Amino acid sequence: MSDPILIADDLHKSYGRIQAVRGVSLTIARGELFGLLGPNGAGKTTLISLLTGLIPPTQGRIVVAGRDLAHAAQAVKARVGLVPQDLALYPTLSARDNLAFFGRIYGLTGRRLRERVEAVLQIVGLADRADDAIQTYSGGMKRRINLAAGLLHEPEVLFLDEPTVGVDPQSRNAIFESVAALNRAGMTVIYTTHYMEEAERLCQRVAIMDGGRIIALDTPAALIRSLGEGLIRVGLPAGHLEQVAGQIGRVAAVKQVTRRDGLLHIEALRPQEALLELLDLTNRLDVRITSLEILEANLETVFLHLTGKRLRD
Questions:
Q1: Domain spans, the chain
Q2: Which residues of 75-104 are buried (b: 16+ CB within 10 A; e: fewer)?
Q3: Cβ–Cβ under 8 Å, residues 171 and 143
Q4: Which fold is adopted by the domain 228-296?
Q5: Within 13 Å of residue 15, how many CA atoms lie on the same side as its CB?
Q6: DSSP per residue, 244-267
Q7: Contact criterion met (CB below 8 Å) for 195 and 164
Q8: Exposed e or buried b per residue across 14-23, where buried means at least 16 C-beta atoms within 10 angstroms of its C-beta
């Protein structure tokens, strides 16, 4: 990968016996919009906290824009913007006053501070409500001001941690448009979410996390192609799993068959044909189907196949 802006090498983070991040390595290119996906508890927020210098790793190395985070923390933090899950806004102050306060924390003053406040209000589409108190804002509008605060110091790398949780469709689309525009202008964005459709819409590459590890990393299209055209999950009596798996795996419409948690996961090149072959096979063997689920190929199905869990479990 040419011109990486972020390198993470074998990152671990433990809290006593709990391993929140386990051996994560990443290289992110300058100007990339990179998705970090997974359910709650997968380790996404801990990883973001490591990469932004909020917490130190138990083990591993982080380099941002050529600077080692362990030895140049202040220089790295000046190049990084973080928009956390939790809102950090003063409800009785206006949006403009909130942004001015955070801008001063970043070291901005005078004319430069005023210019940056106005600029980020335009980016998030809230210039017309800038003088209204935050407590009058909808949840989605508060998320957009939270995003604006992370942009005040013009970071090279922007981390967005679940930026659309609990927001209305209008604000979600506004956040999407803002993020896409920032990326087109050259900003590197690391976008964490457990909404796979967001990643398919926005991200050039995605990493799927579960249990503190990265279990898959590629472009959304490549991850989806790896599954074939769809996934069939079928439950059978335990004594027949191996027999059915062996025979259905030889069908031309089937790419691969795996067994997990008492189910057969059938990656299908042609799902309809594979399903008909499965039904014919179980009828001939007189095997009762206890459950059956047919899923189209998308990132959420990839996640289900890799982990055996629903994304929002």
A1: 4-223, 228-296
A2: ebbbbbbbbbbeeebeeeebbbbbbbebbe
A3: yes
A4: Alpha-Beta Plaits (3.30.70)
A5: 7
A6: HHHHHTTSTTEEEEEEETTEEEEE
A7: yes
A8: eeeeebbbbe
The per-residue b/e assignment along 277-298, b for 16 or more CB within 10 angstroms, e otherwise, is bbeeebeeeebeeeeeeebebb
Q: Could you read off the pLDDT of 97-107 as tens digits, one per residue?
A: 999 999 999 99
Q: At what angle do helices 110-123 and 95-105 cross, to 10 degrees?
A: 130
Q: Which helix (H) or strand (E) holds 113?
A: helix 110-123
What is this structure's pTM? 0.84
Give the number of other Cβ atoms within 10 Å of residue 163's Cβ: 25
Whole-angstrom distance, CA of residue 219 vs CA of residue 298: 12
CA 62/CA 42 separation, integer angstroms: 20
What backbone phi and psi angles, to 5 degrees, belong to 3? 50, 65
Q: What is the spatial distance between Cα 253 and Cα 183, in angstroms, rounded to a whole number?
A: 40
**How confident is the model over 145-187, as pLDDT tens digits?**
999 999 999 999 999 998 888 888 888 888 898 899 999 999 9
CATH number of 4-223: 3.40.50.300
